[in-house]
UniProtKB/TrEMBL annotation:
It comes from Stylosanthes scabra. PROSITE patterns: MIP. The lineage of its organism: Eukaryota, Viridiplantae, Streptophyta, Embryophyta, Tracheophyta. Signal peptide: none annotated. It is found in: Membrane. InterPro entries: Aquaporin-like (IPR023271), Aquaporin_transptr (IPR034294), MIP (IPR000425), MIP_CS (IPR022357). Its main location: membrane. It is a multi-pass membrane protein. This is Tap42 interacting protein.
Amino acid sequence: MANKIALGTTREATQPDCIQALVVEFIATFLFVFAGVGSAMAADKLSGDALVGLFVVAVAHALVVAVMISAGHISGGHLNPAVTLALLVGGHITVVRSVLYWIDQLVASAAASYLLYYLSGGLATPVHTLASGVGYAQGVIWEIVLTFSLLFAVYATMVDPKKGALAGHGPTLVGFVVGANILAGGAFSAASMNPARSFGPALVAGNWTDHWVYWVGPLIGGGLAGFIYEHFFIDRTHVLIPRDEEN
């Protein structure tokens, strides 16, 4: 079967399974961002030690990613436009459903961030920006590499039909990668790996400094990981393209 991105149709938006998936994806992404951003706000409030704060944020993200991927199994638990793009490139989700997921993820992130702002009594919402001395090119490359690492892990432990003994452990292992990547890149590029995770706080704070980096880097890294894994490590015969997308 030729490698082919499935376009899908607008009818998908009204199908019960798609609606259910969008509801689950919204809830899972909302709870992910709520815990992730909330941990960053708590670290800023309670700790004056940057290293302790980074560790707290990394652990919180690792835990919530692992749980929400598992809890969001109906939608696939993407939580991240870069994950959706990587699966789109691999033929695992249609273009139409991908767009719906992206909108869903951004709205969920904004809702979680606004709720945190309210519940914290107007506490400043930490936004992803490049560290002092880190240029745009460096920031983009950081995000490409970190997101590539994340999506390579997603494919290897969850998507690949030959994952074998890793079956069932994918969400936990992906959470580990997220935590490790935040520890590695948090002090430099903020280690977003997720445009939606960066979008909500930026919207609430009204601070779009360096924001484009957190779209360009993760989307390139995610798309590249999906393309490489599908072309070099997976037998494409397992990917089912909807009949109305064939030919």
